[in-house]
Amino acid sequence: MKNQYILRATASERPCFVCSKFSSVVLTSADNSNEDWFYVCKSHLNDANFCSRNGGASPRPASPASPKPPVAKNTDAKPESNSVSDLLSGIGTGIWNTWKGNTKSDDEQAKEKDKQNEDAKKTTSAQPDSPTPPPAASTPPLKPTPVTYILHRDFYYLREREVQKRKAKKDAAARLQSMQFPEVPKTIPGSLAKPN
After folding, report:
1. Where are the domains of the chain?
2. Which residues contact 150 (CB under 8 A, 6 or more apart)?
3. In 3D, which of 25, 32, 21, 19 has the Cα closest to residue 7?
4. Half-sphere exposure of 82 (CA within 13 A, CB side)
5. What is the distance between the alpha carbons of residues 57 and 65, in angstroms, rounded to a whole number?
6. For the segment 133-176, what is each residue's pLDDT rounded down to a tens digit?
7. What region, left, alpha or beta, does residue 163 occupy, with left being phi > 0 and alpha being psi -120 to 50 degrees?
8. What distances in angstroms separate CA 104 from CA 81, 109, 111, 112, 115, one per listed residue?
9. Is the pTM of this model over 0.90?
10. Please, are residues 51 and 34 in contact by the beta-carbon 8 Å criterion?
11. CA separation, residue 149 to residues 13, 49, 66 (Å)
């Protein structure tokens, strides 16, 4: 028995091996022998104390990542503050601006921001994208290798022990079937027979 398991989904739910919550995910032996399988929650698969991930779903080598366009930052905005004095001064300037005559509505301010964002998008889209090399047509597509999970030694010991118990139970049942017990006598022995 190897300490390698593959993740499979099932139609029915059963209790998790670790926490007894119902789950529809099963870890089975990686060698497809069906020697060992058990239900497990998906959350346990990310737990380093339960198992570690081995292998990956991507068979192709990683392509160099294309750089993402820089995100336009709003340099006009003041960083937010949680102090009461900043809050009161902000309220005061809003009142001051409306009394003074600077009455820009929220719609006008939103339109100005949209214009600034459009201008920023135009400048980033004007830059040519880096050319990507065409994929090689001669290489056949590779099958993705399934992700294998390696259990932590304590959990693996529990799985080994359970498999051994199952085998011992099966062997005991087979021995019981093959045993020949003596039959019950169908006739009375002569010494116990009643005299006439």
Report:
1. 5-58+143-171
2. 3, 4, 5, 51, 52, 54
3. 25
4. 0
5. 18
6. 555 555 666 767 778 899 999 999 999 999 999 999 999 999 98
7. alpha
8. 24, 7, 11, 11, 16
9. no
10. no
11. 21, 12, 31
